[in-house]
Amino acid sequence: MSGQFTPVGARVLAELGAEVIVVEPPQGSQHRARPPFVDAEPGVDRSLRFWGQNVGKRSVTVDLESESGVAALRRLIRGADIVIAGGDRLAGGVTYRDTAADHRSLIWVSVTPFGLGSVRADHPATDLTVLAGGGPVWNCGYDDHSIPPMRGSGDQASNIGGMYAAIGALIALSHRDHTGVGQLIDVNVTAACNVTCEQTTYHWLVNQAVCMRQTGRHAYPTPSSEVQVRCADGHYATTGVLPRKPEEFSRMIAWLSELELTEELPETVFLEMAAARTAPVDLASIGEDDETTAIMSAAREAIRLIASRMPAKEFFIASQQRGFPAGAILPPDEAFEDEHMVTRGMHVPVEHAELGRTVVYPGVPYSFSASPASPPRRAPLLGEHNFLLEESTK
């Protein structure tokens, strides 16, 4: 069923090969009215947001304010394996309890902001309020806490809730394979968002410690070392974990030497001390042992110096080649056009006959050797597959 938080879970199932039908009101899903639109021209079949959430699906329109519409919906559900809806009760008196009584193998996935039976069940909710209430907004931001926290873009609450909906549906399918019985799955999107907050929630629950936002790093009660470095082209790279083993420090010294930068980094002497050790550096000793602290500070300065002399992409590749984890922080369009993405098969041309053009879609992000995913199909036009309603009466 077309709803506030339902599209993403159903899209994942479509990517995995399921035949997915999105049931919309006659005027179309609310998501069809959301910008951006193709060529900035609004239209029920031109919302790029709807496209992104409904790739590979079919569309039928049903008027749930009419008896014939409710009857059509009941027929569709009788032939379905899974229903994904914004609750366990739909318009026209269609409920999980009633439908499951005659369809014991039915799996019904309810995806709501606060979960079924919540005292907040009738409260309004948006992507922003759910992310704020669930915790991700608290986690996201910068070391400078005079700057407000950040909300991730791209309907993150819907994506998080949708992924849990898909996971729940797949687990229920496995259960049904063994028992023949379906079940009701209750996805609480706020709770789903909360468990993505990593350490933040349990640090508070266990010892009432407040985790602090840190730029590009895990929120934690105490500050951690910065991992972003500014590169020669103005882009940033993230460096992740610094060297710890003696051979890693040797490779870092060799890299500095190749770039003729050792003279610019007096702290190289500390890298040499680490390379001469017989055991890895103990990160827990940072701040307590002067030599360890100096070594790790030197490693950080070495990375900053190297990055400052190279474009972000070049720095990323060179780091990976030397066994140092790193990543170039690129704008979304540059990341999508990267040759790795192209080689990985993430560029899939999809024909849009109604627009007279072909559009490049991102491919599926996983590859199964025994059950390869089908290439994406464009999102459905409004009511494009209403003939399925007639077939369901046969």
TrEMBL record:
GO MF annotations, alphabetized: transferase activity
Family annotation (Pfam families): CoA_transf_3
Alphabetic keyword roster: Transferase
InterPro entries listed in its UniProt record: CoA-transferase_III_domain, CoA-Trfase_fam_III, CoA-Trfase_III_dom_1_sf
Keyword Transferase: yes
SUPFAM superfamilies tied to this protein: CoA-transferase family III (CaiB/BaiF)
Signal peptide residues on this chain, from the entry's feature table: none
Protein name: CoA transferase
